[in-house]
Amino acid sequence: MDILRSVRAVAEAEGPGVVDWDRAAAAAKDATEPGSVALTDAEREGYAADVRDARSRLADVAGIEFDVPDTVEVQNRHHWIDASVGTFRRVMDPIEAAAADPGGPDGAFDATPGPVPGAAFARDLSRVANTGSMAFALGFLARNVLGQYDPLLLADEPDADHGLYFVHPNIVAVAAALDVDYPRFRRWIAFHEVTHAAEFGAAPWLSEYLESRVERGIEGMVGGAGGAGRGLDPDAFAELQTAMIAVEGYAEVLMDRAFDGEYADLRRKLDERRGGGGPIRRLAQRLLGLGLKRRQYERGAAFFRHVADERGIEAAGAVWERAENLPTAAEIDDPGAWIVRVDP
C-alpha cells in the first residue's frame, strides 16, 4: 500500500473524460493492500463445493432451474477493482458523453464563441476531484466486499457471461473479526451470491428491466443538466429501487431457507457489522449509499418472509415470472396486497 503514490495518481488525472479511469483504478489499488489468494488445495475445493452445493440446494428449495456463471473467480482486492471499474465506467458513460458535448448534436446550447478563460483549469480540477472520489469508492468497496454476482449490466455484449466473484482476503478477515468458523462463513457467502444467480436465471427479463431504468434515470439527469432533456425521471429511480429491494430481499430469505447449516449467529454478527464501525467507516457508508442498501435488505426480507410463510418459498418465486409480478413500492410494506394481486 502506497498512499503517496495513490495521491499522485489522482493528481495526475488527465484525458477528455470527467474521470480518468485508469488513474482511479491505480489510485484505489495503491491505497489498498491486495491481500493473498494463495489458496490451499482444500480451500480451492471448498469454494468449488460451496458453489456447486449452493446451486443444487437453491434449485431444490426454490423450485427453479438456473446455471451459475462460467466465470467464477476467487479474487484479491486488486482483482476486484479491475473487475468492477468497468461497471462504474459503463454507468458513467452517458454523463461523460454529455460533458464532452454539452450543446448536443446541433450545438444549440453552445453560446460561447471562443474559449472561456479558466475553463480548462476548471475542467482539470473537476476531473481530479471526480477521479479521487471514484478511487475512494473503489478502494473502500474493495476492502469490504465479500462476494459479488455481476450481471454485467449495460455491457456492450448483451449475451456476455455473468460473473461470480469471491474476495478471499475479505472473507478470511471478516470471519476472523466476527469470530466465526471460516469454512462455514465462506459457504454462507457462497449461498448468498449464488442466490443472485438464481434470481437472474429465473428472470431472463431482469437484466434488461434494470438496465432500462438505469438508462432512463441517467438520461433524465443528463438532459436536465444540459437543459435539453426532461430532467430527473423519478419513476425510473423508484422502479429501480423497488426492483433492487426485491432482488436483495428474496436473496436474504432464500439463502436462509436453503443453507444447510446453522446461520443465526452469522446473520446477527454480519448485521451488526453492516451497521457498525468507526466514524470514518460510517461516513463512507453514508456517502456510498450503503445504509440504503441495508434498508433494502431489511424491507425486502420482511416482504418475502411474509409471502413465504403464507404461501411457501416456491410461491414467493412468482415474483420472477414476469416484470408485472414485481411488488410495487406500496406492496413492499403490504405483502398481503401483493399476494392478492399476483395470487401465487
UniProtKB/TrEMBL annotation:
Gene3D superfamilies: Zincin-like metallopeptidase, N-terminal domain. InterPro entries: CHP03883_F420-assoc, Zinicin_2, Zinicin_2_N. This is Uncharacterized protein (DUF2342 family). Pfam families: Zincin_2. NCBIfam families: DUF2342_F420 (TIGR03883), putative hydrolase (TIGR03624). It comes from the Archaea. It comes from Halorubrum trapanicum.
